Amino acid sequence: MDKGYKRPTARSRELRNQATPAERALWAQLSNRRIAGIRFNRQFPIGPFICDFVSRSAKLVIEVDGGQHAVDVEKDQSRTAYLEAQGYRVIRFWNNDVLDRIEGVVSEIEAVLETCPPPAPPINGRGEE
Fold it and tell me: Are 4 and 27 in contact (CB under 8 A)?
């Protein structure tokens, strides 16, 4: 096995520990079901990609993008196409939007969640997915 390869869970943990200020700010809003009572996970693997924030029940991926994403548009488009093919809706915010207008970002997420399929009922009775 390639020594540079990390299992998705190890890489996810690493990314959570190295979160950007914008990711930390948005997580403060998304954690503990603060938005519409929906559960989100941070740095969640879907196929070959690790997504910034994912609600499996709402089938929503939220990406927080820095300046490098303005350069690598094709890579983001193919990533989005893959995630959409898996049944997810993908929304993106720039770092500066999250940091400078968090209330507006939260409002946009709430509006998108209103159009997402309703979450499935809890499987184990504890409200976990």
Answer: no
Computed on alpha carbons and rounded to an integer, the radius of gyration of the chain in Å comes to 15
Domain that residue 47 falls in: 33-113
44 — phi, psi (to 5°)?
-100, 125
- What pTM value is reported for the model? 0.79
16 in any annotated domain? no
Q: How far is CA 54 from CA 75, 82, 88, in A?
A: 19, 14, 9
Residue 3 lies in a domain: no
Angle between helices 102-115 and 21-30 (to 10 degrees): 50
Nearest one of 38, 25, 37, 24 to 89, comparing CA atoms: 38
34-92 residue pLDDT tens: 999 999 999 999 999 989 999 999 999 999 988 654 557 788 889 999 999 999 999 99
